[in-house]
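Hi there, hope your week has been kind to you so far. Do you reckon you could talk me through the fold, stretch by stretch? Thanks so much in advance, here it is.
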Amino acid sequence: MKRVVPLVVSMMLMSACSPNANTLVAAEQPKAAADSKAGVSLNDISGHWAESDIKAIVAAGYVDGYPDGSFKPDHTVTRAEFITMTAKAAGLKPIPGGDNKEWYAPYVTALVQAGIHQYKDFSSGDWNTPITRMEMARLAVRASNKSLQSPEDSTDAKKFMFLATQKGLITGMADGQLGKEESATRAQSVKIIQRILDVSQGKKLEVDKRAASYAEVELTGSNVQTMWGSHVVELPYKMPLENTKATVKVHQILIMDLKEEDGAFRSMFDGEIKKVNDKPIGDEYLVALKVDIKNETGNPLLYAMFGQLSPSSGTMVNIYTMGNKKFILPRIGSKNDYSEGWFLFTFPKEIVDGAQKEYGFINLLISENNGAEINLGKAK
């Protein structure tokens, strides 16, 4: 016998995005809540990058074309439209009731009950506001991760975008950037819905490493997990120096494959790269530590990073660019101070591969001039 459990929810509406909620009924959910449509023909998607996904999603009944036979793939999609698509893709039965009679309200209620949407998710605008890529990522992650489907979940936006890129639910724009506040197009929304369906069927999605790197750095300050499947110390990190009273902090740790010229952050480090030992650069990673030095003793202090710190398993490099001071190693206590900058070195891929295979993580070691080692890596 099917059980129907009444659930009475009373809430104050805090924004124009929150539909009225009175008596909500939790019912059994069908495997699919969309009506399939055979023989759908659209006149403006031929050759479009999302053509196959648009055809599949429209045929499955998750979204419709326009009466004139068009789909308008590059037009924006509203929050109401994407909410409805997500509910259908999640196999949720629309839940009518309450004072809000808008066509999308039953789907919003269904998503809220399922824990995929929270009324507080949209703090401005209304349901006709074009949905952003960030808002779309949050819905996609919750729809694909039951552990986040709780009214008490407080995961922040940066974490949602990171999870979305790590899972392959969201890929980057043309240059790999996240475009979090960009309005999503109908084609992009269809692609996300298809990925939600793929994840629900146990498929592993391809990850855009550039987008994942950008999202990870925004969240943690490092892209080591994306590039190496490893973890680093919490940033910013104050190095426990033993041989000086200077304070050296690491604010970012960026990993770049030198063979990926269009990889994340690679364009930041354009220029002629040379090892300090004059040996050729082989199949290696470029590791960039964004650091600063401070004298917090109250007394004069001279400290230059060159000769004070070095990578234990890698080789320091210099980048030669015209008129650019950002790659000069930081120093304090002289007239030509550059207290902030980048500490750069290359790291052989064979060392990374060996450490991952043997230990499951990378020991990213920095040696102080007295021989003490500082480990920026850590186990999961």
About this structure: DSSP finds nine helices and 15 strands in the chain.
